[in-house]
Amino acid sequence: xxxxxxxxxxxxxxxxxxxxxxxxxxxxxxxxxxxxxxxxxxxxxxxxxxxxxxxxxxxxxxxxxxxxxxxxxxxxxxxxxxxxxxxxxxxxxxxxxxxxxxxxxxxxxxxxxxxxxxxxxxxxxxxxxxxxxxxxxxxxxxxxxxxxxxxxxxxxxxxxxxxxxxxxxxxxxxxxxxxxxxxxxxxxxxxxxxxxxxxxxxxxxxxxxxxxxxxxxxxxxxxxxxxxxxxxxxxxxxxxxxxxxxxxxxxxxxxxxxxxxxxxxxxxxxxxxxxxxxxxxxxxxxxxxxxxxxxxxxxxxxxxxxxxxxxxxxxxxxxxxxxxxxxxxxxxxxxxxxxxxxxxxxxxxxxxxxxxxxxxxxxxxxxxxxxxxxxxxxxxxxxxxxxxxxxxxxxxxxxxxxxxxxxxxxxxxxxxxxxxxxxxxxxxxxxxxxxxxxxxxxxxxxxxxxxxxxxxxxxxxxxxxxxxxxxxxxxxxxxxxxxxxxxxxxxxxxxxxxxxxxxxxxxxxxxxxxxxxxxxxxxxxxxxxxxxxxxxxxxxxxxxxxxxxxxxxxxxxxxxxxxxxxxx
Length: 568
Known about the structure:
This protein is α+β, with helices and mostly antiparallel strands. It has helices spanning 35-45, 76-84, 118-128, 134-139, 146-184, 188-206, 212-241, 254-271, 276-302, 307-327, 331-350, 354-397, 441-444, 447-462, 482-494, 507-512, 537-549, 554-565; strands spanning 2-10, 13-18, 23-29, 61-69, 94-102, 107-111, 114-115, 129-132, 243-244, 250-251, 404-411, 424-431, 439-440, 469-473, 499-503, 515-524, 527-534. The strands form 4 sheets. A 6-stranded antiparallel beta sheet has the order 2-1-4-5-6-7, with helices on one face. Strands 8-14-15-3-16-17 form a 6-stranded mixed beta sheet. Strand 5 (94-102) and strand 6 (107-111) form a beta hairpin.
């Protein structure tokens, strides 16, 4: 979960530190105080596009840094593997992510101090945070996103069927492409053979074995550690023994200087016994330094650091990444690609009537693809009924007792039958009132209804969601009164299993929070400054009172106290 967020020189924010806890964290404040800037800052460290307009006026850059605790992260092994491939290690289960944007529009991203690409930030973000803002509310109007929501709800069963379907579809497309190529181009087979021969040779020459990638990464890590240790020890030895300059000059080291000092004191002690103790101490120090230098020399001689091996390891890792970019995400997929290329090459050489053979194979694969597609469709329909029932129940809790929510399946036309998602077009249908036919969300849903539908979907999906931190930016837009209280209860429910951050402008949600943060702005020397304050109990009551009535009158404060107690 998110432990700490520091924001500097970001729009109207000069410097604030935001430290949310587990449970429901609510952020409130007057209009223009910069509440949503916290969400924008988190979006930046998770790979969102940067703009130089975010840099505070008069500053050369803005800076955002976050600290995540990964102790209880459910997909930790997958994230660790991704980071290790980039040479990034996580100490004490902490992940530090920072982003700096300069006035010229350029930006720098780092994870645990290592510079990374925005693509990697986005991949890491999927493990850590799910942000729901007003843009996401609009996303439920887009029917292209509905299949994804349903599949997320369906879980592993649908994921496995979809993966199997995708595999058959890819095989089917490759066969169809080959048939078209052979039918349309006389020299297609010659060109295809040339390509396959190149693939087989490149993968065969590389000869990567299962598990080698992990071994290479571990070897690189050890060599980097040895190199760092050797460098440090060499520096220490240089201090002890001195060094030779490029111009032929040399400098004394601490050991020789101390030996000289010991000899001088010995001379003094030979004439004056009162210096005997000092002479003995200097001699002991000199001997210790000489012994230390000798031990370091021995360690360096015995150290298992091989610069040539380091170069070969880096070269091997580079080759692997090059092959991964062309043939598969790991060694197993690369070798499988090579095996298939070899098989196809043998097939071209062996079959005189390859076109006829491919058409027979296409028919066989098409039957498997159709069977899998039907199985996927049935599984989605079953999940769709359960999702509809769950969302209707959620909407009833959100003051929409008569709502109807359905998942509609429309079989695709033959000319566009097999898509990447399946053989059905999937769309959500909704009706808010009795007697009203369920229709497309975009046709009938208001802003307040869209927020509640999205919250209902998020609450249903969060039960199987592994993302530890969920962020809602003004989920209460367009709602008030009882609906706001219902939304607050849902957020409280989600926060029982997640860290939830919520930007709000309603008293009900602020009253339900486990922690309240207030953003305020003030003008200093003509500049607007935003500050973030963690509220204590009294300040929390005052803020809920302000959201209720705009002030802190006695009746409003008492109402705020009652409202807070209602969520305890």
